[in-house]
Specification:
Elements: E1 6-9, H1 17-26, E2 31-33, H2 48-61, E3 66-69, H3 81-101, E4 105-108, E5 111-112, H4 118-135, E6 141-145, E7 153-154, H5 158-168, E8 173-178, H6 179-184, H7 193-207, E9 212-217, E10 219-220, E11 231-232, H8 240-249, E12 257-260, H9 272-281
Parallel strand pairs: 1-2, 1-12, 2-3, 3-4, 4-6, 6-8, 8-9, 9-12
Antiparallel strand pairs: 5-7, 10-11
Helix pairs in contact: 1-2, 3-4, 4-5, 5-7
The structure holds zinc ion.
Organism: Candidatus Sungiibacteriota bacterium
Keywords: DNA damage, DNA repair, Hydrolase, Metal-binding, Zinc
Pfam families: AP_endonuc_2 (PF01261)
């Protein structure tokens, strides 16, 4: 049975290559990391030696793809122009790091236009993404993640993301679909066979599955349509193990890298147990 790469967000505290060690210790085949602090505007790059070590370790471990996750501060359509500017610079800086370390791309949330009309917010986002891609050449992709909705956030539904992709017109602009955010934003009420298939088709229609490079595989601590983003360990939240079993059977999701962003059973982040649960989803009982 064809299955996606199964992995997790891992810490690179200390040095980049620690992320590869962490991945191996929990059995992650692909990873997401922070390329720089997610809580600061200022971005510090990495020493050439640190990057080399990371690339070697990654190669030796056979881990990939590698995605970076952007800073939480980023809001490409903030009504405040100076925040917008800072967001664009910050995102470009993180994308440069992705490129420098040989990561496949940078996953980010678009942000919220707040009281701004949606059309205007979308236009601002499209232009900003185009400038960033122009400013940071190379192969590294910018990957839009669906939001949990709420607060006029852009990117809570596949059609809005599709609209941005079709207007930016770059093969480097991709999508990451978060299972918990889709549930929290009211896109899917239950991951049963019918609704899951429906969601997959809706994504395909909105932006095409070729654009779906990653999925954040998270259970949800909050209820359907809560617009409140809280991740839970797989099987411990409102989506539940059965929901993820259904998700695993959907072929349209098999080419994306599956990345856990769960709290972990001991509270220290994605762990071996969550990875093992993901693997168990693909074991077919006869
Ligand atoms: Zn996510």
């Amino acid at each position: 049975m064809k299955r996606p790469k199964l992995g997790a967000h891992v810490s690179v505290a200390g040095k980049l290559s620690n992320g590869i060690e962490r991945a191996q210790s929990i059995g992650a085949e692909c990873i997401q990391i922070f390329g720089a602090s997610p809580k600061q505007w200022a971005v510090r790059g990495h020493e050439a030696r640190d990057i080399e070590d990371f690339k070697k370790a990654r190669e030796a471990a056979g881990i990939g793809p590698v995605y970076l996750h952007a800073a939480y501060l980023v809001n490409l359509c903030s009504p405040d122009s100076s925040s917008r500017q800072k967001s664009e610079v910050n995102l470009a800086d993180h994308l440069k790091i992705a490129s420098a370390i040989g990561a496949e791309g940078l996953i980010f949330h678009i942000g919220s236009g707040k009281e701004m009309p949606k059309d205007k917010a979308l236009a601002i986002v499209v232009e900003s993404i185009q400038r960033i891609l122009l400013h940071v050449p190379g192969l590294a992709q910018l990957v839009i993640e669906n939001s949990a909705g709420g607060g006029q956030k852009i990117g809570g539904n596949p059609e809005e993301i599709g609209e941005i992709l079709s207007r930016v017109k770059s093969s480097r602009l991709k999508v990451c679909w978060d299972t918990a955010h889709a549930f929290e934003s009211g896109i899917i009420e239950e991951y049963d066979a019918k609704r899951t298939k429906g969601m997959a088709k809706r994504l395909d229609q909105a932006f095409g599955m070729d654009a779906l490079v990653a999925m954040h595989i998270n259970d949800s601590k909050t209820a359907f349509n809560s617009r409140h983003d809280r991740h839970e360990n797989i099987g411990q939240g409102h989506i539940g193990l059965e929901g993820f079993k259904v998700l695993a059977r959907e072929k349209l999701f098999a080419d994306a890298a599956w990345i856990l962003e769960v709290p972990g059973f001991d509270g220290t982040g994605p762990d071996k147990k969550n990875i093992e649960i993901l693997h168990s989803l693909f074991v077919r009982s006869r």
